[in-house]
Amino acid sequence: MAGAAALRRSARRVIRPDEYTFSRTLQHAERLLSSQASPDRGGVLGSELGLYPPERIRNFSIIAHVDHGKSTLADRLLELTGTIKKGHGQPQYLDKLQVERERGITVKAQTATMFYRHAPDESDAPNYLINLIDTPGHVDFSYEVSRSLAACQGALLVVDAAQGVQAQTIANFYLAFESNLSIIPVINKIDQPTADPDNVKAQLKRLFDIDPSEALLTSAKTGQGLSQVLPAVIERIPSPPGKCDSPVRMLLLDSYYDEYKGVICHVAIVDGALHKGDKIASAATGRTYEVLDVGIMHPELTPTGVLYTGQVGYVISGMRSTKEARIGDTLHQAKSTVEPLPGFKPARHMVFSGLYPADGSDFDTLSHAIEKLTCNDASVSVTKETSTALGMGFRCGFLGLLHMDVFHQRLEQEHGAQVISTIPTVPYIFEYGDGSKVQVENPATLASNPGQRIAACWEPTVIATIIIPSMLGQ
Ligand SMILES: Nc1nc2c(ncn2[C@@H]2O[C@H](COP(=O)(O)OP(=O)(O)OP(=O)(O)O)[C@@H](O)[C@H]2O)c(=O)[nH]1
């Protein structure tokens, strides 16, 4: 235990006259030691999490237009806090899917817990627990963004210093604004020769009424200005609300299926504490489960045995399929009655397409692949359909064309399915002479002779606001 002795020594070296500092530093070292001794119990962080009451927790998202640098900024923050090693050789760490890496886009929101030391505490032990949620920038995935924001009290609004405010900056700003989040503007990529931070500050003032003095100027590439980011998170974003001594109540943010571990739910603990072995119930289905494993994303699944009020982490509770893990559901202590949390707006499917196996005999393989993938992407709707030309297949609803493309690519890459997809269509509503209406997602399902006259037909329209630079408007 030479390492243990060194840790103890380093803990003692930083002892200050202040007793609180002393005990925290020593406790931190002890936790590290116990984790080294029993890594499988979740170690480092098990009982250490108890050192972070809600006032020492910050939960925030990074929101931005696509490619403005969210994932790179997230990498830098993870490095700054020692959550990942510098030069870990895997840029955009939180972009884990192959499709995300190939296309350079974030598709799925990801969470990471960081431990950070913020003045005025004098010890060198971390004194804040910060949960960072990296969200997708493309409009098709705004459903992921709004879900993530429900677990946050604040957001970094990242804007490219050269491109300025773009369409998704506006859409994401309003998502965060409507969720009452504290917004910290971050003007990123100031290293670029065409960067014009003053112009971006003026845009932020004009469009969102953000005081220019609030903007942080950063380069996630060179590291310039990054040291201001986490202090701003701590000083400007409120701590999560919640009652520590109430029975446990948590919001189910996301779920995915792991071949070995089963359904893994991401949760935000709103009230109380959740321990391994606890019995919990779903407010949506009434089913009860035993907590088999619980922990944080640090940045990978790290068992801790417990999660306290205000913390964000994962729970494994023997759910068989992600259909049981309804996103937006409230999980709570079994046998207690609790007020369910508000949940989320359901996903609205904008585009429908038929998916068929390239070889008709592979229907079962495709069916299996779709089932597995929808376990990790609950925003896709799936119904079976049959086409005279293509045989048995599925009609799937997506949030947009990019979402459809990404789903298709994931089916092929992650599940080895060979897929033919039909031309995407939008849902239509037909109204008959008697006033009855029918929504049609697949042209084949519209009765060719319904026995009545079609009085009207509607297709989706959007109410759009077009914002263009004033130069082009003249
Ligand atoms: N010059 C410069 N380039 C940057 C900076 N930050 C990020 N980039 C680059 O900008 C590109 C997009 O960065 P990402 O971090 O993937 O952007 P994102 O906002 O996460 O993109 P999505 O996940 O698709 O929404 C990458 O090529 C980065 O290397 C910066 O501060 N300066």
The helix fraction, in percent, is 25-40%
Beta-strand residue fraction: 25-35%
The first-to-last residue Cα distance is 72 Å
The coarse overall form would be: globular
The poorly predicted ranges are 1-43
Number of helices: 11
Radius of gyration: 25 Å
How many strands in all?
Answer: 23
Small molecules (ligands, ions, cofactors) in the structure: guanosine-5'-triphosphate
- Spatially, the strands of the biggest sheet line up as 11-10-16-7-8-15-12-13
The major sheet is characterized as: 8 strands, antiparallel
The assigned structural class equals alpha+beta
Average predicted confidence as pLDDT: 80
At a glance:
One of its GO terms (molecular function) is GTP binding. Residues 55-241 form the Tr-type G domain. The protein has 474 residues and is α+β, with helices and mostly antiparallel strands.
